[in-house]
Amino acid sequence: MTTSYAGPEDPNPMGRRGAGPMAPQYNIEDLVQTIDRVRAGIESVIEGKRESVDTALMVLLAEGHLLLEDVPGVGKTMLAKAIGRSIDCSVRRLQFTPDLLPSDITGVSIYNQESREFEFKPGGVFANVVVGDEINRASPKTQSALLEAMEERQVSVDGTTYELDLPFMVVATQNPIEMEGTYPLPEAQRDRFMARIEMGYPTQRAELEMLEHHGAHDPLMDLEPVTDAGTILALIETVKDVYVAPPVRQYLIGIIDATRDSSDLRLGASPRAALHLLRAAKAYAAMQGRDYVNPDDVAHLAAPVLAHRVLPSTDAQLQRHSATDIIDGVVRSVPVPEK
Amino acid sequence: MARPARAANPAPPRPQVITSSDRASVAIGLGVILAALPLKMLVMGWSYMWLTIPLVALLSMASLVVRRLRLGSLMTLIVQIILMTAFLLAVAQSLKTEGGIFSGWWGLYEQASEHIMSQASPMEPNAGVTLLFTTFMGVIAILTDVMVQTIQRPAWSLLPLAMVWVIPTFTLRNETPFWTVAAMFGGYLVILLADGVNVTAWWPRGVRRRDTDRTNGALALRSALIAVPALVLAMVGGMALPVLMNGEWTRDKPKGADGPLTMSDPSLDLRRNLNQPEDREVIRYSTEAEDGVYLRMTSLPAFDGTGWHSSGVQLRDMPLDPPPGVTSVDYDTINTQIQVTEFGSEYLPAPYAPQELQVDGEWKYDPDSLMVMATGDNRTEATRDLEYSVSSLDVQPDGQGLSQAQTGNPPDARYTVPIPEDLPPELFELSQQLTSDQPTPALKAAAIQSYLRSDEFTYSTEPQPGTGYDALQNFLFTDKKGYCEQFAGSMAVLARLAGIPSRVAVGFLPGEKQGDDHVVSIRDYHAWPELYFEGYGWVRFEPTPSVGVAPSWTVVGQGSEEGNGQGETPEPTQEGSPSPTPTPTPSEKPDAPLPGPVDPPESPAWVQTLVFIGLVVGVVAGLALFVSIPFLIRRRRRLHRLATTGDMDQRVEGAWAEVRDSVLDAGENWPTGSPRVIGKLVGERLDTQSARAMEVLSLIVERQRYARSNSVNADLAAIAQDVRRGLLHDQDLSTKFAANWWPRSLWLGLFGRKS
């Protein structure tokens, strides 16, 4: 039994599921313009984080989920909220704690005494942009409830399946410093995130500006939506149409394959990783205004898309080689396709 | 592993009529056939080529077809080996009369090895030798195919091709004609040029490059597997053959119009003939010369540690040339009718210097020695029961004039003048001792002759100890016993040491007069020295006592001006000659002017100057052409790449390849990465306009390779030229020169660019 649920915050019935046959067609230029506007909006909130913002938007267009790994207070939640607001989508934030239950995420059916029926109370996952803060603090069971929703884009409660609104993107954050009392995401779970980025501290200048602007009021309040969920869904369709030439596909597979052969890695990239890399590359190429993927796109995205999925070997860890460095090395070892 | 040609790409393959592999296969066939030509030096006739050409063509076609079907290199090799075996078996079967299929086959090779060991080269090829040569060329064809196509090192194909050339060159040792080198390099060039045409097609290796990289280690191993046996084969072949052939192979061979002939060594027959248990009549002749004539067969101009040999013989068709060097001497034309009976030889006995011959059979002559040699069937028995007449110039120098003559420079001076470096010094001392008192060359020669004719020496046909220099020293200093060969050889050596060009002639003494005829017996077989003097040509001397009388002009105190027919014979023979010889006639000939043919007209100086200028111009032009070969190849490649025909893919990749080669030509490295990255990196080194061109081109290439569709309306050739101009703009003169005339991209391409 599949029931559609329209959440109370659903701003745009158009963007329910798929763009639909009536959805307007957008070309690459439209996409670039729209994304430029969204980016400009977000950058008014988060300064000097061009690359993180771009990656986040890329993940949105590629229908993936984003893992933000960084110390607290660098703007992870702010980024997620800014995205939601710019595209006029619902945003929900879930603070993961050890006592968070799966039903807090998916929702729960409650018996309504008046109507004498079970009534579904949707959980925190029912939003276009879901921010899962410190996801590693919750119990594995709770984590997996979110991860299932991420993968399936639907929630099953008491035998009833509820589809989630589209676009749907989970932005999960992990704090790498406090490891005590946490449940780090296992490899299989991390594999479900399309990309991982580290926000990093802002530059001094950006931080100074931030103090200046954000001191008085919440900048999010000033952020005006520049597009809507329906447009985003149409743009996602546009991205799907981006061309990937056979040599580029082979290059991508070459990189994936090389991670499996690399002596620095205990675990290479999965087939899902290859799929994610391909989708990410398409979105990235579209954001550059191209209707085809070139090998540079693939090479550029290999580290953000692959680094969190692989496991460095003990030797590499002893030599303090980060997964990102290893992936960069692997990419350099694979020759760029010529023809 | 076949080159990942375009067709190997997952992209829909363009229909290609001729692939690079096809071209390489055909080029290998042509190249190997060309390289097989030098083997001709070892055999007579072209029979081996008639088998080699089909076999090599078959192997080349097999390579073409199997590679077209993309069955892989191993399969190519297997198919080629199977085909070659089948072909050779079939040929062997048709050639061989006895034995089963395989034993018969092997038997032919055994036959070949026996034949080669027993024959001097160039030999008359038998079935085995033909099969052996064909097998060898088949192996070379397969090796070449492996080098060019399997391990993709066309430049290395020089090794198998040179291997073929090395065998005749090192076994024959004397001058290998230039055409053999030309044939070998011609074959090599064909293979390289085919690769040059292919280079445009093969450099984009596609993403499969990774596979290539993975096998780099294996490639080195495979290369070693090929190179080591090839080298071993070349070395063993080159070394073993001359050893197997023994001295026979190292002897100089005459070359006829149809190729080389085997020439027996006449000096070997000397002692055998002189020691015949029964003297028998072999030649009967009648001549206008009163006292009979020396019937000369050949002369041996070359001297080394093993004795006197014939050398540098060039066989020509009749009519004969005038005798070399005769310009200022009296002569008479005499006619001689000769009838040979029980004597078989390839050399025609004739009085020196023969001018006209009436003889049956195929005969050619050598202009330097004026020997006449049979070239037809059953050559070594050509003179048996032969009747012929000779008209000859009877050159009779006058003693007076000769004694004033200078030594000259004979046409065969390269053989008749040199003194072996390892000649024992005693000989030189002896020559000095005998001749230092004499003022002119002829007098020196006379002194040597009279020394050898003196009492100190004894004529004996008994075998003397020692060989080579030992025998010579033994004769001159110890035993002082010998027969005509020792006397003639010693005089020729001593005269040569005194600065007179010399050679040893072999033939018959005039024999005994019987009625109107002269009768020559087998024991009249003789050798005598011939010395060369300016204006007189080759002059006969007679140092052997007891068999021959010294010619009048060789004895001091005799001369034509004395008009004395009876010259005093200095050393009368004591032991009784085996053949009574008449005293030679002194020259009492009228002072007639020499006929035209005897004196070859000197070309006027201006003709010589013209020829010289022509030669210089020719050499310079040849050199210029040779030097500009890299330029021409590079230019051809550029035009080919920048051609406005062909599909867009080819044109864009062509322009990109051209830019890459221009970067390499300018001495810079071609960066790795995507076109965009390369465009940026190369562009950083260029001026604005060229950098812009580079960027445009890199984006065109990117779109062509990776985008769904591409429409190019830019002038690719102009863009590529722009980039090249920018690359060479700031370079110094030498780099610019090298970029055009010695393009680095060409060498990197030839010798395996793997980056």
UniProtKB/TrEMBL annotation, chain A:
Positions of the ChlI/MoxR AAA lid domain: 258-328
Cited CDD domains: AAA
SUPFAM superfamilies: P-loop containing nucleoside triphosphate hydrolases (SSF52540)
Keywords carried by this UniProt record: ATP-binding, Nucleotide-binding
Family matches, as Pfam families: AAA_3, AAA_lid_2
Record-level Gene Ontology MF annotations: ATP binding; ATP hydrolysis activity
Gene3D superfamilies: Magnesium chelatase subunit I, C-Terminal domain, P-loop containing nucleotide triphosphate hydrolases
Region (Disordered), start-end ranges: 1-23
ATPase AAA-3 domain segment(s): 65-194
Domain of life: Bacteria
Family: Belongs to the MoxR family.
Name of this protein: MoxR-like ATPase
The organism of origin for this protein: Propioniferax innocua
TrEMBL record, chain B:
Domain of life: Bacteria
PANTHER family in alphabetical order: PROTEIN-GLUTAMINE GAMMA-GLUTAMYLTRANSFERASE (PTHR42736)
Transmembrane segments: 24-42, 48-66, 73-95, 127-148, 155-172, 178-203, 224-245, 610-633
Annotated SUPFAM superfamilies: Cysteine proteinases
InterPro entries assigned: Bact_TGase-like (IPR052901), Papain-like_cys_pep_sf (IPR038765), TgpA_N (IPR021878), Transglutaminase-like (IPR002931)
Keyword Transmembrane: yes
Compositional bias (Low complexity): 567-578
All copies of domain Transglutaminase-like, residue ranges: 476-545
UniProt protein name: Transglutaminase superfamily protein
Ranges annotated as biased composition (Pro residues): 579-601
Region (Disordered): 552-601
Keywords: Membrane, Transmembrane, Transmembrane helix
Taxonomic source organism: Propioniferax innocua
Pfam families: TgpA_N (PF11992), Transglut_core (PF01841)
